[in-house]
Amino acid sequence: MTDRSSYRLPAEWEPQAGVLIAWPHAGTDWAERLAEVETTYVALAAAVTRFEPLYIVVAGTELREHARLAIERAGADMSRVHFIELPYDDTWLRDSGPITLTGPDGVLLNDYRFTGWGGKFGAEQDDALIAGLLERGVLAGLPHRRIDWALEGGGIESDGRGTILTTWKCLNQRHPDLSRETMTDTLATTLHADRVLWLEHGYLEGDDTDAHIDTLARFSEDGGIVYQACDDAGDPHFEELGRMASELAELRSPGGKPYVLHPLPWARPILDEGRRLAASYANYLIVNGAVLVPAYGDRADAEAARIIGMAHPGREVVQVPCRPLIWQNGSLHCITMQLPAAIAA
């Protein structure tokens, strides 16, 4: 049997077997604006299948056919589309999907407890999603362990070399009775990490994840960190994101060097019935040969795409319209979960 200490959480830019999503339907929180948000899912499906397989969780055969027709019309490569019928509460698979470690002889599926972002929303079906995938044969035969500890995939970022980046605000909300030392040990043990870096600052209005790291700062292929900056001194985020930028400047790589920092431009405020929405460019998705970047119909979209492409050299940059997603407080990375290539080995 493989020594499990040899497993690690790969970086997102490492080879993938595919991307996992769940299709929105009238029984989810998207019901009020279903047609609008489907435009994002269709564009995402067409983009992903240009580069790798796409696994779509659907709630039944009728939804399966509906989704199939929509993405086929959009020109998706249907030979790369695979449907899985399972019940789910919501479509944020970054947080309810498997956190997959890789090792010399394959993979290890970490199945953490999903609590609906600290009990904010019902999550019973989403917490059973990974077990459902195993039952449906999607991940059958792969080593799997249930971990009775609340953690979402959007709350952690890996450089693939043993470093985990996360935020104190999120993990402290999930585990208010645990010390930082205890949580650091749990993260390092279950993710087989060498070190855990904590950010004290950073938030976005309209984000109900309690400052998930994937809305704020991401490791990049060039050895740096891409992060959401704010250059508007009159914006309420200016001071807090400035403090986060200072924290990032103090971090050191495993080799002891400062990280190259890539600040992302700040989109103008997007309001929905007076409510500020969290339009983060840091919430991008890396796939084989490309990086998919959220676009919000803002003048900063092009510059954000340029910077992200620069931080992930050699990849095609594809913009995906994500303005409908932020109505429900998340964006592109939040609705997806990549599956490492070793899953298909």
From TrEMBL:
Transmembrane segments: none
PANTHER family in alphabetical order: AGMATINE DEIMINASE-RELATED (PTHR31377)
GO biological process, one term: putrescine biosynthetic process
A GO MF term: agmatine deiminase activity
Pfam families (UniProt xref): PAD_porph
Protein name: Agmatine deiminase family protein
Swiss-Prot/TrEMBL keywords: Hydrolase
